[in-house]
Amino acid sequence: xxxxxxxASRENVDSDSQFQEQGTRVLEKYLLKKDxxxxxxxxxxxxxxxxxxxxxxNGSPIYGCAQPALEGIRYILNxxxxxxxxxxxxxxxxxxAVIFVEGIPFTARPSSKLNENDMVPDITGNSIAVLExxxxxxxxxxxxxxxxxxxxxxxxxxxxxxxxxxxxxxxQVKTLHEVMADIQHPGIESVIFQRATIERGNxxxxxxxxxxxxxxxxxxxxxxxxxxxxxxxxxxxxxxxLAYLIWSAPLQLSxxxxxxxxxxxxxxxxxxxxxxxxxxxxxxxxxxxxDKLANGVRSKEWIDQAIDKNALIYHIRHVIxxxxxxxxxxxxxxxxxxxxxxxxxxxERYFYFIVFGSYLLEAxxxxxxxxxxxxxxxxxxxxxxxxxxxANTSSEVFEELLSLTGKSKEIDQFHISVFKAVNxxxxxxxxxxxxxxxxxxxxxxxx
Length: 447
Hints:
Strand order of the largest sheet: 2-3-8-7-11
Low-confidence stretches: 7-15, 390-447
CATH superfamily of the largest domain: Protein tyrosine phosphatase superfamily
Helix content: 40-55%
Largest sheet: 5 strands, antiparallel
Order of helices and strands: EHHEEEEHEEEHEEEHEHEHHHHHHHHHH
CATH topology of the largest domain: Protein-Tyrosine Phosphatase, Chain A
CATH architecture of the largest domain: Alpha-Beta Complex
CATH class of the largest domain: Alpha Beta
Structural class: alpha+beta
Number of helices: 16
Number of strands: 13
Number of domains: 2
Strand content: 5-15%
Mean pLDDT: 83
């Protein structure tokens, strides 16, 4: 039995906020929301309802998807077995706790923020697993009090939530780890489940990159590697591209520079910053990085090839220019600053992709992790900061914007100074707001 309370019911409550307080409450402060949003599936592929955005990076053992339902996990394993793989390493890169009820994934959200990911900065995979166990225990307690009646939220249209009442089997309430531990497939010998939290729009923490290197390096020819976030777009594309670089590094190292499959290896110094081609990633800070690294031009070409190869849903390089363009076109100063900050964040991600490519091209020894290599090259971080790369969180940026409320000329000047910083202007980089940092920082994200 399923009962839906939508717009008609809302007329009978005092306010939307009161309405959103309804639902089965877990851990006292959370409500459950179905882990699907409108327009989630972007590919012309089957089974988008159970395994949204599931795809393979052609010619590799690397796959990606949004959070699948239990039936979707089985479908994915069927596909991997058909593709000839007998072992799977599955890496969930979400920062949110996930709980399954009768094979359907749900997330826990505060009632006032049903459309925002509820994330704790720097949370680890182990911490999320503990939270999921607590959510399960709390939900089971609530179901015992309500005769197994679950009230949850789902989003039939964008940002419009409905309350659903459904009778469920408490035995079918499981954490994500339990679901993955229980999964079996006759053609798959083993499924190793890993958790590695990655922030949207950011390059992963260095220690997570080291984990990815370890997992992929240990995988044999019979092992497929699957990555998923909630939507299977931004974060999944980021980590799939990283995985491809790690996987393809031996081939890259086996070729001489003259054998590289690139149209032309340009010298970074020859790139004219006055006529930057943003789609090709020729930003001033990127040109400076290519000059700084001994193999910078080669690394950029390799990274661009990997990005283009993995751009089926999300293009890691083009999104920089897209956000920059929005920052120029939005009528509201706060919106312009928001998109400019996001452009800075994804530009820094691209910057660190090239840095990581340089690390791989140096053929590091087994003991020389990316973390240790970065510690040996502290000057690389300075390249980004010296050209207007960043030092402030989104909240600090918006606090400054709020302090300028009613002073449109000053807000526009604020925007101009940050824009100069992104393009390498010394004038812009000298201001507090022009040093917007992106590293380790989180914007509140819709969904």
